[in-house]
Amino acid sequence: QCPGIEPLCLDLADWDATEAAVAAAGTLELLVNKAAVDPFLEVTREALQRSLDVNFGAVLHVSQIVARQMIAQGLPGAIVNVSSQASQRALRDHTVYCSTKSALDMLSKVMAMELGPHKIRVNTVNPTVVMTDMGRINWSDPQKSAAMINRIPLGKFAEVDDVVNSILFLLSDKSAMTTGSSLMVDGGFLVS
């Protein structure tokens, strides 16, 4: 649907391969970062490290690469990190996920502060459950989904387009004065 957009598929935990792939992609002005659900008492060191590597470390690294390119070329830009409503509200059995998404929100605020003088805006989009293929599989059971949907004033989960449209807004000039913000795409979950 969007000519000129080329996704890069790679293991973001491999910093060297990531740096090579992003460098080979050429000039970038826009970046979207989208990358473990465990009960607190069952979190293993390996699960923690994997989630930190993907949900936090990879975003930091790819953003550094792209921001350095933007600055070197004197280009303004926009970075949108896909976070979650779970960065703002504790969810049972989501220890590492909630924690890494909270860290991602703060990383985005610090990036906004430090990259703003270079005319690079940084924001997050924080959706509720999104009805991707995986979301439909994990949340299709009405007994499981009822408790979450009942806390969403709009009474439904997000669709992929809800998140995509929010990202497109934050990448566009229509949000030229928006940086360091978290755009909740949660149907009101956090106000309930």
From TrEMBL:
Keywords: NADP, Oxidoreductase. Homotetramer. This is DER reductase. It comes from Nycticryphes semicollaris. The gene is Der. Pfam families: adh_short_C2 (PF13561). One of its GO terms (molecular function) is L-xylulose reductase (NADPH) activity. InterPro entries: L-xylulose/Carbonyl_redctase, NAD(P)-bd_dom_sf, Sc_DH/Rdtase_CS, SDR_fam. Belongs to the short-chain dehydrogenases/reductases (SDR) family. One of its GO terms (biological process) is glucose metabolic process. The keyword Membrane does not apply.
